[in-house]
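Q: Here's a chain of 414 amino acids. Please give me its 3D structure as tokens.
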Amino acid sequence: MDRNSDRVVEEVYRSDWSTILATLIRICNDFDLAEEAVQEAFAAAVDQWRSRGIPEYPRAWIVQTARHKAIDRIRRRARFAASARMLDPSESIAAVEYEGPGIQDDRLRMIFTCCHPALALDAQVALTLRTLGGLETDEIARAFLLAPASMAQRLVRAKRKIRDAGIPYKVPGVEEMPERLEAVLAVVYLIFNEGYAPTRGGPLVRTDLCSEAIRLGRLLRTLLRPPPASATALLALMLLHDARREARMNEGGDIVLLEEQDRSRFNREQIEEALPLVEEALRAGPNAFAIQAAIAALHCGAARAEDTDWAQILSLYDALEQIQPSPVVSLNRAVAMAMAKGVEPALALLESLAKEGELNEYHLFHATRADMLRRMGAFEQAAASYRRALELAANESERRFLERRLGEVSGGRR
């Protein structure tokens, strides 16, 4: 029995889920059917690869098996004669194994199908995160600050709308591209964010999602000439955030806060690539991604934590709140305010956000409030906020950090 097969299945799932699903959707033209077939193919791989060994082309094996599973499902539904026309009988292992233009186009088709203007913007983003990003419903719900059940309903409605409206699975022409760009960029950034701070699981960072989002960001800049400022800014923003990856956790996989990070571990090559992109995006006029990229550039450009220009960062958050107001932006602005002007005014801002209620189920809100209370010496209140953050956090690295902080304030230590 080949136990290495389990590791290979997991690796293929993590690295190639979106590619495989995009290919199956192209083949059978049905989101739900494609997803069910791919899930069944991975389950079959677990059983068969253990006993028969790992195939020469693992991803192609999954695609071919999923295609057969899709045909079987259609037959069982007694619709084979009508539906089989949707399947491309020429699809073969050779056609899907190699990373080339066809695979790339499948991913692009996936994005632009999900981001069709006939769908509501939040539905566009959510569906693409589920299909292209491979995110679970609760992971997507977190990005929207919604209950998982509500997000599940949105996903069902979005898939039904694509099917009933006959929305084509293709990359649109240049003339149609601008009206879909906002949603596409939002999708790519949310995929990156889920990699940068995963909702659940052990690692603090999912490098596969970060790398895929950066790859898509580069690709999107090539679709329109000249590249839209927002696409340029998004790529810069992701590169700058990702440049701090190695410094964000220690050898044990525990969180290292920004002010404690070893800046010699920042990826200077990515920073040097990103900084001209930030300038290019800002010259075109302020947009939300450009402002966020400028903030990230200030963090990456400070040689020491104490050199960070928090006053400028707070000013940028003021501008961002005007352009793209949201509870999370206000939360980040409060953090900048604490560093630039002191904890008391920042904590007052947090209390006003608490009254609005939109962040009450967001663990980082309670963790931020706890940290400010800790710095003020209000250890009992800080402990209560850390406990609430722990109730809501699902990522193991974040939970270990919160538990340490809770232990500190419970012991009356700073």
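Q: Can you summarize the key feature?
A: Residues 4-28 form the longest helix (25 residues).
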